[in-house]
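Before the break, one more example. Copy the sequence into your notebook; we will annotate it together after we see the structure.
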Amino acid sequence: MDESELIRRAQAGNADAFESLLETRYDTLYKFAFKWCGNKSDAEDVAQLACIKLAGSISQFRFESQFSSWLYRLVINCAKDWQKSQARHQGKNIDDIHQTGNEEEKEGHENLANTNPAENRIYLQQILQLLNTMADGFKETALLVHAEGLNHAEAAEVLGVKESTISWRLHEMRKQLQVLGLSSTLNEVRS
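Here is what the structure looks like once it is written out:
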């Protein structure tokens, strides 16, 4: 049975079809949540929220875009909701996350090509911190293009913006990363 048929059956309330759909898409959903959060525990929480949200909103999928685009959007929304709830529980404002970028840190980011995966995760965490401080839409853009490998048109479809907006956001991110000495990091860090 193809994915479209699974979706239609899940929309009609068929639990087996929903379970099959979830089994085929869970890895993608979890990996994207991990790239958003940067750690396993938080990614599991976001993935669980996304599964619950998917169960409640599968009927809203209208086949007007690819299911993967719709699913990315759902995970992004769940991740944002989760992030806000974490900030509330910790007594922090989501916008109060401070930027890193002192001289010692800048010196340490020169060449990621020679680093190991553990160091790459550290750089990923620093990039995620920076992206959290930027305007809405930047983190999603970076993750969709650089972590998920979507092209500009696909990322624009997921986010509901023009392709030129994706290009502009990526340009602005590179400028910010360059200021912090992380300019090559965006293209080199993969998780």
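Residues 62 and 70 are 10 Å apart (CA to CA). Residues 15-37 form the longest helix (23 residues). Try to locate both features in your own notes.
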